[in-house]
Structure of Alpha/beta hydrolase:
Amino acid sequence: MTSPAASAARTDVRFPSGETTCAAWLYAPAGGGDGPRPAVVLGHGLGAVKEMGLDAYARRFAAAGYVALAFDYRHFGESGGEPRQLLDPARQLDDWAAALAYVRGLPQVDADRVAIFGSSFGGGHAIVMAARDRRVAAAIAQCPFTLGIRSAMTIDPKGTVGVTVRALRDVAARVLGRPPVRVALAGAPGTPALMNAPDALAGYTALMPDDREVAGEVAARVALQIPLMRPGAKAKDVRCPILFCVCDKDTVAPVGPTLKYAAQAPRGEVVRYPVGHFDIYLGEPFERAVADQVAFLQRHVPVAAG
């Protein structure tokens, strides 16, 4: 059996978004084939970059015959945008739209057969984008962020106070034209971090690449936005097939709201895994999830049209 790593060629690319460009990895299936192929656009979670596990998913999709694009949001990783580590949900959705436009313009891609894959915070974005863009052929929302207030409640009271103080200081810094005040993405219970459940720090750290340093902080102002966000509410407006990959032991994106919203998607499918939020990226849970995702794509966006 040919390994996924040997089945796809990866190229560094950039595409325009707003005032700058987003960095991405473009994967071409081995063997080429006749005519344009379907594609999958992949975006990551809260403050994460493509080096934190997206490569594995993209390679599996490419090994199954799909063109795949894994990208970094503006302000993160190798993408442009100042200030660095600015997590702006509206700008990230614009980056998704720009990534879709770029992929649809590739000569090797069938523009009407482009699917999207989002994980965690990006899973919420995938729901919103599938509702907004009726050309999206299929969507995968993995351990998705669906209801901000419930995710905010996973931070313990001591941590919430610290995060709120930093967020207010960051808002003041923006008004005064000063550099952002940052907050940790993941931390131990009781510490000021956007994720401080017992498994958050170890889980997030396990996704960090060995060959490059990745900032583990973001501008704290986003903490005031997160409780008001309800990306899952857009599931009812998604007309394409959408797969919800749900982690039953999720301590970051609570399962209850996700299952409620998934039931409202007209063509929604749900697969549940007995693991935590960060477990699905690695080992056997990853193998199970990505196999289900490839099977979903092959049913709804087959490589051979028709």
